[in-house]
Every structure is written in C-alpha cells, then in structure tokens.
C-alpha cells in the first residue's frame, strides 16, 4: 500500500463536509385544495452560492393550442427565453411588467423569437392577438427555486440554516402576489410545511 493510500482516509476526515437539507411545502387554498404553479424560492441568511444559476427544466415557453406552455416558468436572471410558435396562427408576445417591458411582433408557425430577462421579478406574458393567452415568467436570483406541482407540492433541496422563503402565485391576495416566511432549515433531513394561500 502506498503512502498516499494510507494518508487518504486521514485527509478526507479533515475536509469540510457540505450539509444541506430539503424543504417540502404543500400549498393549498382556503378550501384545502392543492395550488399548482406557485413559485417557491429560498434565500439563506448565509447567502446563495456563487456562480451561474442553472435549472433542469430549460428556458423555453412554447405557444401551442393558443396557450403558453408552461404557463409558469422559472428562469435565472440573465436567462434568454425562447418563444417558439407551434400554432397554425401567428402570435404577438408582449409584457408590460416592470421587470421586463418588451414586445415581440407577429411571427408564424415553427418560428421562434427570444428575449433576455435581466431583472428579477414576476413578468406577466400575453399575446396581442389572443387576449385569453397568458403566462408568467418568474425571474429569480437564487438557485433554490421550485414550482408547485398538481398536488401543490414544491420541493427544494440544497439549502440549510435560517432562511427567508418566498411564495409567489399570480392569483395570490398579497402585495406583489407573494408572501414571505422565516424557516429554519436542517443541515440534513427534511423540513415539511403545509401553507394555506389566499387566492383571488
């Protein structure tokens, strides 16, 4: 056995160990029904990791069947979102939201346009041709973010310590459609909360 092999266990024992737990939020409305498409973000008091933020779900909002898909998309600050048109009709994408005011004029089927989101916040998306179309892009500056699923569950792993948790939903009865809470996160294990949201 080499000297390196003998020394390796001792070396590993002295290295700092990264600990991080999981936050499980189950979001419901006043009647106890699940709330999908709510965006949950965590900002630990110790700060967020340095470096670029990447999420596994990509940065595309498709227009198909006269609707935006997904209806709610989470992207990091600086992300360029593609808006491919999969409909037989033309679309005209726009937003009047403060974090991103922009307009992508008429374009047709199998064409794609894009826009880069530089400021954190909630951006409401519409189509100037089809008033019933609406979508939302939540631009975030933390890697700890998730969207609630059809069962109202949002799960975020990787954060630990005291933290501020923000919950946003386009129909929430609150300033800027969001509420915040303080949550102590375990270094290991799971912290679970059930949160009732007041919706319009």
UniProtKB/TrEMBL annotation:
Keywords: Signal
Origin superkingdom: Bacteria
Signal peptide: 1-20
Name under which the protein is recorded: Methylamine utilization protein
Natural source organism: Sphingomonas baiyangensis
Organism lineage string: Bacteria, Pseudomonadati, Pseudomonadota, Alphaproteobacteria, Sphingomonadales
